[in-house]
Amino acid sequence: MRCSFLLIVLSASALYAQDAPPALTVYNQDFAVVRELIPLNLKSGLNSVRFAGVTARLEPESVALRDCAGGQTPRIFEQNYHPPVSQQDMMTRYSGQTIEFLVRDGDRQQIVSGKIIRPGSIYNVALQRRYGENFYPGGYCNPQMSPEQQGLEQPLVEVNSKLQFALPGTPLFPATSDESIFHPEINWVLDSDRSGGTRCELSYVTRGMTWEADYSVIAPAASHGNAARNTGGERSESLDLLGWVTLDNHSGRTFEDARVKLMAGDVHKIQPGQPMTGPVAGLGGGLLRLGGAGQPMVTEKAFDEYHLYTLERPTTLRDNETKQVEFLRRSGIPSHRVYVYSGFTFHPDPTMNYQPDYLRFERWFGTTSNPKVWVMQEIENSENNKLGIPLPRGRMRFYRQDESGQLEFIGENTIDHTPRGETLRV
């Protein structure tokens, strides 16, 4: 029985031409969910589809192709992910062939030819990337491997009729016209029950994207007279609060005019080597709008046990770019400055398992004290206090105006996810 294939090659630029911008949900734990519509023109029977618009840090097991338009639901026979070509891949491709190597000796460099007898393992390539192209581990052996495996870890190159267990220099590979090997891509083998065009949603999880909140708190000069001392060492004053969403994209792909959502909360994500159990924590709250007067740039709503923030305008996230979007601006927020002193100082030995009840038996107990006073700012996160919005985790920087009105930095700290109704103490 003979099976015929129809090869379909898609790229990210083709998607944008179809007016189908990608949608992103970015988590503040170095990952994101990508969703985009892929136009497919399938024939009846088997089709081989290649899509080269994914990120370089995609998690292959998370890829899903679903929700095809027009009721056409092709059956997926195979799904393959091909990462961008690496030095190890090229060494394997040219195994048994002679290539050139660039050898550097101080300011001098020369070209030598060598035949790749064995490309070696990817471990050596990783070390070269980490420590530099002139790092060659040579006789390195992994004690967890058998002697046969340890030998296969090392590359074997013939140079001047002699064999050496290390690369003589930086390999120089011949140019290739196959540009697809330089970009990550997904290959499918799809079985369609009829011919025609459709659009399917591609979704996947990718590493290399994160977001966090950055806050700037501005206090007026002490001489302005708005600060009133209370009993108990407190001081009341009005603050201005400005909040930014900071997005970092290191996924290996640029997203043009993307619709971006931000998930706030400690979403449980299994890490390599981590057991598949653990608590899930989130935020509580209702439907809110963030921002000052006029059309907000970010809207927020409760989603499951978390909070989901939506950027109102499409934005372009370029690879290796840091982007900031304002999401909060409030003025005249009442607050309290609190001075806290804790005289007890405890510097335990990290190698010892101290029990608090036994500390008083230690010979150093009570002989030292803390010479520092903590300066804390208390802000009630309520609507009556001109806030009342879930505050995402992030860094809060404090500034105070001097007598001339110039801002001076006076300290910073981090805050955790703070639901509405709680008191923020930094």
Verbal overview:
With 426 residues, the protein is mostly beta strands. The protein has three domains: 6-83 and 183-206, Immunoglobulin-like; 87-172, no CATH class; 209-425, no CATH class. It is built from four helices and 26 strands. The protein has helices spanning 12-17, 87-93, 122-131, 147-153, and strands at residues 6-10, 23-27, 31-42, 45-51, 64-66, 75-82, 98-105, 108-118, 156-159, 162-164, 170-172, 185-192, 196-207, 209-219, 228-229, 234-249, 255-264, 288-290, 298-303, 306-311, 315-317, 321-340, 374-380, 394-401, 407-415, 423-425. The longest helix has 10 residues, at 122-131.
Which helices and strands occur, and which strands form pairs?
Elements: E1 6-10, H1 12-17, E2 23-27, E3 31-42, E4 45-51, E5 64-66, E6 75-82, H2 87-93, E7 98-105, E8 108-118, H3 122-131, H4 147-153, E9 156-159, E10 162-164, E11 170-172, E12 185-192, E13 196-207, E14 209-219, E15 228-229, E16 234-249, E17 255-264, E18 288-290, E19 298-303, E20 306-311, E21 315-317, E22 321-340, E23 374-380, E24 394-401, E25 407-415, E26 423-425
Parallel strand pairs: 1-4, 2-17, 14-24
Antiparallel strand pairs: 2-3, 3-13, 4-12, 5-13, 6-12, 7-8, 7-11, 8-9, 9-10, 14-16, 15-16, 16-22, 17-20, 17-21, 18-19, 19-20, 22-23, 23-26, 24-25
In short:
The protein is mostly beta strands. It has helices at residues 12-17, 87-93, 122-131, 147-153, and strands spanning 6-10, 23-27, 31-42, 45-51, 64-66, 75-82, 98-105, 108-118, 156-159, 162-164, 170-172, 185-192, 196-207, 209-219, 228-229, 234-249, 255-264, 288-290, 298-303, 306-311, 315-317, 321-340, 374-380, 394-401, 407-415, 423-425.
